[in-house]
Amino acid sequence: MQLVESFEKLVGSLFTKKNIDLYITGSNAYLLSGELATLLTGRYIAINVQPYSFKEFAQANNEENNTELLFRKYMNSSSFPEAVTLAKQGDELVNDYIQSIYDTVIIKDIANRYKLRNIHNLHRVISFLFDSVGSNVSSTNIAEALGKASKKNLSHNTVIKYLNYLTQAYILYAAPRYDVKGKEQLTTNEKYYMVDLGLKNITTSNKYDADLGHKLENVVYFELLRKGSRVYAGKNSDKEIDFIVQKTKNEREYYQVAYTTADEKTFEREISALRSIRDNYPKYLLTLDYDNSNINGIQKLNVIDWLLK
């Protein structure tokens, strides 16, 4: 819709008519920028449509019993509704569909709109971010890493532009960092999460990669977003907290996410970050383990059960 010239005038004229419910769809944040945003200020509700949650994915597959096996599939494939339907006919159709979404976003929503001359660099930034899901990154370290890999300079200003383009196109979501001790939002080293894990399958040769911990973090991030909360990546002195969820001004939750905490060092690392927080807001440790427990007020929960609630 946003590609139709002067569509704002049509929307404005329809908005003045009585007994009309108006629904407008678009593929990027540009739809609610500029003239249309001014025209509709205070008179619209934005609904951000995302791929299936795990609960919806299970329902679409008519499989709500063997949830552990299904969850592994969820983390290694696409959860776009059409992709889930196509998966019943074979992976090749799914890959073609995901590739078409990727190409549409990169070419139509980004490259054409912003008149990019070097699309290859944009692809490189995307691949870097897909491989860095759940990690703190900055435009500077992205530029440096890609510059060393190809021996071609890529300015951090260019990377900043690409990051903005990708988040406005909703292919990536940014979780800003929040300093618990300092009680302030930080402006550097955000974490980025991909809107659909299936997108990684077309940018890497290792489809079923070993980085399941960060994939799990990606799943939890979007589930928290679906609950309508503001989600931050947390920091408390030298401790990293995966997510701080600001539900209301006076209501907050903390989350650590790990594939498993069977290893004592992993358990201590994850739990110590939550223990370091000196307030009484709820604290959760989400894993694929099945030993749900209360550890001095910290709730350890099985993430599959949590997602299906």
UniProtKB/TrEMBL annotation:
- The DUF4143 domain covers 108-258
Residue ranges occupied by any AAA domain in the UniProt entry: 2-57
Task: Fetch the InterPro entries from UniProt.
Answer: AAA_14 (IPR041682), DUF4143 (IPR025420)
> Which protein, by its recorded name, is this?
DUF4143 domain-containing protein
